[in-house]
DNA sequence: TAGATTGTTAATCGATTAACAATC
DNA sequence: TAGATTGTTAATCGATTAACAATC
């Protein structure tokens, strides 16, 4: 199969979110023009994306909401469990630790870490904040492959180095720092301000 | 001038961030291949982007760090003050209220709001949490055009409606909900899990 | 000079949009 | 039936990459 582009995956995730809402409202069918209007996009794009994972659209009525939702979940592997540790127990780390929607995507938080003594031992969402010294052990025991990096920028690179030594494969980077990492490590840089700038540029 | 694509703006913001680091380290010149390696991209892309705002590259040495940084700032209007209110004083709202980097981009937080009595009056980063009933007044007085939405998903749409009535033009949506808004309102949907999924898909 | 780099054009690549027959 | 929608191909559009002369 041809490799999926990031954009397709992102769009499928958006459809999936809308479909969850429709399921909740008890709507049985939804058409590509309907989805397109919600997302302000082209309806043939929607159909093309959906065809990647779902072959049962019905003329005149559209797609069966529950079936399509399930097919997107399978296609994107949303039900597969992915274990992650959160490093940095500041407000952002706490916010992500409490983020209920992660579990809809199979993302399971296996630990929450900080090097600040005053934070260690705090309990958030049933999880206790551990010291950085326990990082290796927890990553090893839980087989977590993902690290969510929410530390202050000045320590971002050094913490990333530690994570890589502890065998983390994916770093979800919420700091504004561009990390230097070996090629085999995937970094998802959550460039907040960069994402937002295009919206206010020139307006 | 032709309209800039989002991608170009995002890349310029990334160069800008790297240039800040170089300024701090006292590096005077940086070349397009150097920047390209850091960001794992093509060097001719870097040159093309830079040419949009800076015409003084030097053969053999590259670009003057300080000058290029300044030119990107002017080009993207980073020094122009943009006023925003944060609605939702949970962990994420607090994290963003404390986010020091916003001011590098001219984003000024003019207020922090919540409808939870126990949060109203709390002080964060020199700012006091106000009740939602004060939203209209503060938006009017500060002329804030931007709202950063960090409320729970179930109230996201109704709070967005309030914001639009209060004359907000841009909504930076950190909830997982796709908002329905009139055409003249710009929504930047910070689709966290959607951004991350492409990185772990199939791996 | 030799070699590294910019500025710039041309070629390629991929993503989006338009169009429409087939379907119910 | 008439009309709305899917599935799918073709056309368009835009973004990325390759290539290289000019520069210092």
Structural description of this entry:
Chain A has a seven-stranded mixed beta sheet with strand order 5-6-4-3-7-8-9, sandwiched between helices. In chain A, strands 1-2 form a two-stranded antiparallel ribbon. With 203 residues, chain A is α/β, with parallel strands linked by helices. In chain A, a hairpin with a 2-residue loop joins strand 5 and strand 6. The first copy, chain A, is built from eight helices and nine strands.
Overall geometric form of chain A: elongated
Structural class by secondary-structure content of chain A? alpha/beta
Order of helices and strands of chain A: HEHHEHEHEEEHEHEEH
Mean pLDDT of chain A: 96
Which regions of chain A are unreliable across 5 or more consecutive residues at pLDDT < 50? none
Which percent range describes the beta-strand content of chain A? Answer: 15-25%
Question: Ends of chain A: how far apart?
Answer: 42 Å
Q: How many separate helices of chain A? A: 8
Greatest interface by residues involved: A-B, 52 and 52 residues
Helix content of chain A: 40-55%
> Which oligomerization state do the chains in this entry correspond to?
homodimer
């Amino acid at each position: 199969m041809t490799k999926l582009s990031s954009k397709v995956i992102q769009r499928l995730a958006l459809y999936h979110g809308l479909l969850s809402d429709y399921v909740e409202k008890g709507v049985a069918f939804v058409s590509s023009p309907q989805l397109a209007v919600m997302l302000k996009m082209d309806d043939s794009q929607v159909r093309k994306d959906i065809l990647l994972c779902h072959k049962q659209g019905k003329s005149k009525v559209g797609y069966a909401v529950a079936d399509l939702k399930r097919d997107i979940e399978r296609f994107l592997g949303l039900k597969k469990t992915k274990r992650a540790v959160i490093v940095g127990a500041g407000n952002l780390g706490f916010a992500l630790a409490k983020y209920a929607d992660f579990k809809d995507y199979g993302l399971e938080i296996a630990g929450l870490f900080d090097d600040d003594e005053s934070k260690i031992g705090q309990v958030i969402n049933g999880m206790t904040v551990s010291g950085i010294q326990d990082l290796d052990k927890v990553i090893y025991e839980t087989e977590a492959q993902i690290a969510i990096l929410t530390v202050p920028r000045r320590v971002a690179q050094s913490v990333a180095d530690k994570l890589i030594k502890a065998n983390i494969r994916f770093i979800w980077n919420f700091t504004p720092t561009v990390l230097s990492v070996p090629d085999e490590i995937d970094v998802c840089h959550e460039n907040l301000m960069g994402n937002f700038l295009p919206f206010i540029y020139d307006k």
